[in-house]
# Entry
Amino acid sequence: MSSHDQSAHGHADDWHHHSAAEGVPQHEHAATINTANTFIVLFVIFGFTAVFILVTILYFNVTVRQVQDARVETIGGAQMFNLMKGQMEADLSTFGVVDAEKKIVRIPIDRAMDRVVRQYQGK
# Structure
């Protein structure tokens, strides 16, 4: 019967037995437990975990708030946009002088489109 078969039946195999060549028998690991150190390690682990979770939550709250603030349109920005939009709509629907020295004028967009269509129809 091999040592593997013995361990299957609850008997220790050769690996578990110490020989005289190993020297003085060694003490059992964790024969006595230092409860103070164990609790200190436990509190350090829990403390690190709690701090990590707190920092993660704060980071994501700040990040989400920044993204929301970037998306929210402020009153001042909306007013400026409405003024610019009104000016652009006025420019597209009225006659006006763009550059007097170069003799550049603007005409309403609907008239400009009609002229372009007539030009292409004539070709």
